[in-house]
Write a structure and sequence with these properties.
Chain B: It is found in: Cell membrane. The complex is a heterodimer of chains A (357) and B (69). Chain A is mostly beta strands and 357 residues long. Chain A has helices at residues 16-36, 42-45; strands spanning 59-64, 70-75, 81-86, 90-95, 100-106, 114-117, 123-127, 132-137, 151-155, 160-165, 171-176, 181-185, 191-195, 202-207, 215-220, 225-229, 235-239, 246-251, 257-262, 267-271, 276-281, 290-295, 301-306, 311-315, 321-325, 332-337, 344-348, 352-356. Chain A has a single domain (64-356), classed as Methylamine Dehydrogenase, Chain H, CATH 2.130.10. Chain A contains two helices and 28 strands. The radius of gyration of chain B is 25 Å and the shape is elongated. The termini of chain B are far apart. Chain B has a single domain (7-57), classed as Irregular (G Protein Gi Gamma 2), CATH 4.10.260. Classes of the chains: A mainly beta (357), B mainly alpha (69).
Chain lengths: 357, 69
C-alpha cells in the first residue's frame, strides 16, 4: 500500500526528524515525477520563432510628487490613471497622460507597500505597516477629503505586502508578512477565505486572468510560489526552485504559466500544466534582486525591475535579454504594463514613477 | 499564521501538501511549451510593445503639447 496515499496523522513518536525525512523523500519523488516530463527546454521549442527586432523604449513621462520611496503602483482599467503609494504614507492618483495629480491621501502609517485600483475605477485600496487594507472611494470632487470615507477591509497580524481586487469592487485579496493570504468582502469587511501554506512572509500575489478560473499565485520569503484555489482555500501546486525570497509573482496572459522575480537575481517562468520551472532569466552580470515583473500583452516580453536601478526586458520564449533600461536613480520597486499594453510604468525608491513606451 | 506555528506544525503542513502534490497530473514540457509558443505567436501581432504604435496614435508618445490646462 503506497504510504503516500494515507492521510498523515501526527502520532506519538513522531519527531521533527521523522517529519523532515518523510518530507525529503516526498520532495525527491515529486522532483522525479516532474523530471520524467521534462523532455525539452522552452528555449529549444522556441528556436524556430523569429527573433525580436531592435528594441527601443524611452521614458515618456516622469511623475514627480512623492516625497519618498515609491513602493507600489497600479493602473486603472481606463488605461490612463495610476495609483501609487510610498514610504512616507502618501497615496496619489495620477492622470498619466498629463502627469497631473488627481487625488492624494495620507495614510496613518508609513511604508504603504500595497495599492490597487478597483475595476470600476471608482476606488483604490492600500495598506502597509498598519497591517490593514483600506478602501478609499474616489470622489469626483477633487477637494473632498478622501480620508473621511475610508473603509477598513482587511486585518492581518503583520504588514500588508500586496492587495488586489478580484473581478469586481466587492472583494479584495491580500497577502501579508503574517504568512497568509486572505479574501475579504469589501462592504462588510468579512473574511471569506484564508490561505495557509507559506512558512514565512508572503510578499506578492496575482490573480489568474479571469478566463482561466478562480486561482491566484503567491510568492514569499520561504522561496515558494504557491498556486491557490480561491473557493476551497487549497494550495493546489507549489514550486520551490528560487534560492532566495520571491518578491513578485505574475501570471502569464494565457493563465497557463506565471513568472517570478527574486532576491536571487533571477526571474523564472513556471508552467502550470507541466508543473515545473521551464525558464530562468538571468545573467552573470545581474547580481541584484529583481523586485517586480510584468508581461507584455502577448506574453512575449517580460519586464523586470531590479535593485540595481535598472529594468531588464526579457524574451520570454528564447530566454535572452532584449534590452536594459536606465533612468531611475534608485531601486526599481514596481513595474506594471498598462491594461491595453501600449506602455508600462515603473516606480522607484528615487520617489518617481516613469511611463515607458 | 505561519509565524505562530511550531516547527513541527510547519513540517506537518508541508508534508501534507507534498502528499497532495505528488498525485497532481502533469503534461510533458514538449507539449505545453509548444502551446505557450503558439499562443504567444498568435497574440504577438496585436502586442503594441512588439509591433510598435505610430507616434500619433499613442497618447504616451506625444509630448502633450496640445493640452490646455
Amino acid at each position: 500500500r503506497d504510504a503516500c496515499a494515507e492521510p498523515h496523522q501526527l502520532s506519538k513518536g513522531e519527531t521533527i526528524h521523522t517529519l523532515k525525512t518523510e518530507s525529503e523523500t516526498l520532495k525527491a519523488k515529486l522532483e522525479e515525477e516532474r523530471a520524467k516530463l521534462h523532455d525539452v527546454e522552452l528555449h529549444q521549442v522556441a528556436e524556430k520563432i523569429e527573433a525580436l527586432g531592435q528594441f527601443v523604449m524611452k521614458t515618456r513621462r516622469t511623475l514627480k510628487g512623492h516625497g519618498n520611496k515609491v513602493l507600489c503602483m497600479d493602473w486603472c482599467r481606463d488605461k490612463r490613471r495610476i495609483v501609487s503609494s510610498s514610504q512616507d504614507g502618501k497615496v496619489i492618483v495620477w492622470d498619466a497622460y498629463t502627469t497631473n495629480k488627481e487625488h492624494a491621501v495620507t495614510m496613518p502609517c508609513t511604508w504603504v507597500m500595497a495599492c490597487a485600483y478597483a475595476p470600476s475605477g471608482c476606488a483604490v485600496a492600500c495598506g502597509g505597516l498598519d497591517n490593514k487594507c483600506s478602501v478609499y472611494p474616489l470622489s469626483l470632487d477633487k477637494n473632498e477629503n478622501l480620508a473621511a470615507k475610508k473603509k477598513s477591509v482587511a486585518m492581518h497580524t503583520n504588514y500588508l505586502s500586496s492587495c488586489s481586487f478580484t473581478n469586481s469592487d466587492m472583494q479584495i485579496l491580500t497577502s501579508s508578512g503574517d504568512g497568509t493570504c486572505a479574501l475579504w468582502d469589501v462592504e462588510s469587511g468579512q473574511l471569506l477565505q484564508s490561505f495557509h501554506g507559506h512558512s514565512a512572509d508572503v510578499l506578492s500575489l496575482n490573480l489568474a486572468p479571469s478566463e482561466t478560473g478562480n486561482t491566484f499565485v503567491s510568492g514569499g520569503c520561504d522561496k515558494k510560489a504557491n498556486v491557490w484555489d480561491m473557493r476551497s482555500g487549497q494550495n493546489v501546486q507549489s514550486f520551490e526552485t528560487h534560492e532566495s525570497d520571491i518578491n513578485c509573482v505574475k501570471y502569464y496572459p494565457s493563465g497557463d504559466a506565471f513568472a517570478t522575480g527574486s532576491d536571487d537575481a533571477t526571474c523564472r517562468l513556471y508552467d502550470l500544466r507541466a508543473d515545473r520551472e521551464v525558464a530562468i532569466y538571468s545573467k552573470e552580470s545581474i547580481i541584484f534582486g529583481a523586485s517586480s515583473v510584468d508581461f507584455s500583452l502577448s506574453g512575449r516580453l517580460l519586464f523586470a525591475g531590479y535593485n540595481d536601478y535598472t529594468i531588464n526586458v526579457w524574451d520570454v520564449l528564447k530566454g535572452t535579454r532584449v534590452a536594459i533600461l536606465f533612468g531611475h536613480e534608485n531601486r526599481v520597486s514596481t513595474v506594471r504594463v498598462s491594461p491595453d499594453g501600449t506602455a508600462f510604468c515603473s516606480g522607484s525608491w528615487d520617489s518617481t514613477l516613469r511611463i515607458w513606451a | 499564521m505561519a509565524r505562530d506555528m511550531s516547527d513541527k506544525d510547519i513540517l506537518k503542513m508541508e508534508l501534507e501538501q507534498l502528499q497532495k502534490e505528488v498525485k497532481n497530473t502533469r503534461e510533458p514540457v514538449s507539449k505545453t511549451a509548444k502551446e505557450i509558443c503558439e499562443w504567444v505567436e498568435a497574440q504577438s501581432a496585436e502586442d503594441p510593445l512588439i509591433k510598435g504604435v505610430p507616434e500619433d496614435k499613442n497618447p504616451f508618445k506625444e509630448k502633450g503639447g496640445c493640452i490646455i490646462t
